[in-house]
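Researcher: Re-running this chain for the archive, since the previous output was lost when a drive failed. Same request as before.
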Amino acid sequence: MKKFVMAIDQGTTSTRAMIFDHHGVVIGCKQKEHEQFYPKPGWVEHDPLEIWSATQFVVQGVLNDENISLDELAAVGITSQRETILVWDRKTGKPYYPAIVWQDTRTDTICNQLAKQGGQDRFRDVTGLPLATYFSGPKIKWMLENVEGLRASAEAGDALFGTIDTWLIWNLTGGPEGGLHLTDVTNISRTLLMDLQTLDWDDGMLSLLEIPRRMLPEIRSSSEEYSQVKGMLSGVPVAGVLGDQQAALFGQTCFQPGEAKNTYGTGCFMLMNTGNKLVPSNSGLLTTIGYKIADQDVVYALEGSIAITGALVQWLRDNLCMIDTAAEIEELADKVEDTGGIYFVPAFSGLFAPYWRSDARGAIVGLTRYINRSYIARAVLEATAYQTREVLDAMEKNSSVKLQALKVDGGMVVNELLMQFQADILNVPVIRPVVAETTSLSSAYAAGLAVGLWKDMDALRQNWQKETQWDPNMKDATRQRLYAGWKKAVTRTFDWVE
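Model: Regenerated structure tokens:
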């Protein structure tokens, strides 16, 4: 009997497989981290073969752990880090080069050259995006120009480009033996290569970046039965694909215009549903695809992207060795009542929304001899909340919608101290659902919808349940003073990179 859906969630630092039942309840989860490579300052890479190996490990692991047979799986959905890209050989499945991660800044020169004519926003009307190292198109151009033999292979049709979801689908559906080369509209809306109106590759952008069209995947909707898996999960249909942040919007059941969510992961991403209307941004936000269900009309969204949030906690753990596990930061930060006057602006990869300053770099400001590691830990957590406030301000200005509450998800929402400070600095309630990992849940929903496990979107909305709510209790004068200090600190990070 088909009663479960599997979600493969391939993130920036780890891969996991989760199994959900018809009520959206987690039945099982298996997770495995993968290595982060930093070959040069500003460069961030992943090993695609390690990611595929980790995917196989977690998929088989969760089935074994929960003793679930393939006959019980209705479908599998995929969600993944969006702007991370790779190119591989169609015949062998071997990558030509490591995956270039969304945080990577090596394409700064390419973006600056393109911005000389028309400025940073010259392609916003078509793509909804500013020129920034964040997005995939310039990364493909860099690979074609710097990886020996790649351009010839791409023009010959032997080299396949993809975001991580494309790589996983190709391997799941046969790899060199007829694997499908496809992706969905949400992932491709992040490449700087897609026309948001036509939902197709834009020939003008492809020509400008000198990217051969034949290396690009087919663009499909976010929820439809694409193909059946071969080998591992043999016979189970792949039926849902969403970029991780659009997945969280969908998983939080933000199906109506004006509904918004914020995901706290490696970075932090706030999305607001704008319905079937494409809303241009004049406040430093991104106009993007929210989701597209089968042959229904596409749903658009506004997004505020923050590069470094959970990654800052990881940096505190791995680079400074101030904590042994990410969970320890809350206990350390809770030893003090405030930050002692310091602010930590984590512009490690420049600043994303609402600034889009690739010349910025990280800074801790306000340091005195009074400061110890507890104050630094608290400043690390508060940095996430302040950055979210900046994005929310921009979103309310752009949409003319005043949020009444913020739905939150992702790994950091288990941090009670952070969530309370977030409610305080936003001055709105912060709500965590029962299933906080809505990114995974959403890809399961998309796949389940496609195969009829769920009848419609209303059935998904009925599954959503509130677990915890944090209400603001900070005095307005304190809120204004703290936020003004943050805004001042941010300006200190500008113009660091010439």
